[in-house]
Amino acid sequence: MQPWQRRTTRIAYENPWIRVREDEVVRPDGSDGIYGVVEVRNPAVFVVPLTEDDEVVLVEIDRYTIGERASLELPAGGSDGEDVLAAAQRELREETGLVAAHWQEIGRMNALVGVADAPEVVYLARELTYVGDEALLEDGIRAVHRVPLTELLARVGRGEIRDGESLACLLLALVALGRVG
Fold first, then answer.
1. Edge-first strand listing for the sheet containing 98-110
2. What does residue 58 show for φ and ψ, rounded to 5 degrees?
3. Does residue 86 share a domain with residue 15?
4. Residue 21 CB: number of other CB atoms within 10 A?
5. pLDDT tens for residues 67-111?
6. Which whole-number Å values give the CA distances from 121 to 105, 126, 148, in the listed order?
7. Which of these, 75, 132, 128, lies nearest to 103 by C-alpha position?
8. Prediction pTM value
């Protein structure tokens, strides 16, 4: 089996956040094909905020892309060319009104690898303090929730947390905290 080969490429669409590329390719089996790739211009950041009471802070947010109201997710957003830690700190404050005294990078991921080049950086944030200034309505955030770490898996099992990136970040956090693996 041969690796994928790109013959030509063209930009189908772009804006300040993403670029969509269409490539003429030779597939691993040798056949010709077309492959569409979404390139995210800057890494996304995800924050797993953990309180001193062992609660994870989640946001309840409306997601236009999937037509859903009330998706339960971790605070996250684009780095927009900013240092990724500074972007994570900004997102935590904007979405929850919290700041953290202790930050730990716990992983790097790639979203939707079958269709996207979308790097992500995940942080565990501890020693949280509420300072206000959250931009809830601007981002479609309906509420901020504190969920005991011991209840997270039950919520996942009941389908209350379905965002794939949040699920992956929570797993990274459980590993970093020594709770699994």
1. 76-78, 44-49, 119-130, 98-110
2. -120, 155
3. no
4. 17
5. 867 899 999 999 999 999 999 999 999 999 999 999 999 999 999
6. 7, 16, 23
7. 128
8. 0.93
Q: Are residues 102 and 145 in the same domain?
A: yes
Helix (H, G, I), strand (E, B) or coil at 93: helix
pLDDT for 63 equals: 86
Domain count, the chain: 2
Cα–Cα distance measured from residue 63 to residue 22, given in angstroms and rounded to the nearest whole number: 26
Give the Cα separation of 47 and 45 in Å (integer). Answer: 7
> Are 48 and 57 in contact, with CB atoms under 8 Å apart?
no
Domain span at 48 = 44-176
- Whether 22 and 35 have beta carbons less than 8 Å apart is answered as yes
Q: Where are the beta strands (DSSP E) in 79-140?
A: 98-110, 116-117, 119-130
The residue behind tokens 């189908």 is: 12
Indicate the residue type of 30: G
CA 62, 116, 113, 119 dihedral sign is negative
Tokens of residue 64, six digits:
């236009």
| Alpha helices (runs of H) in 31-135, residue ranges in sequence order | 84-96
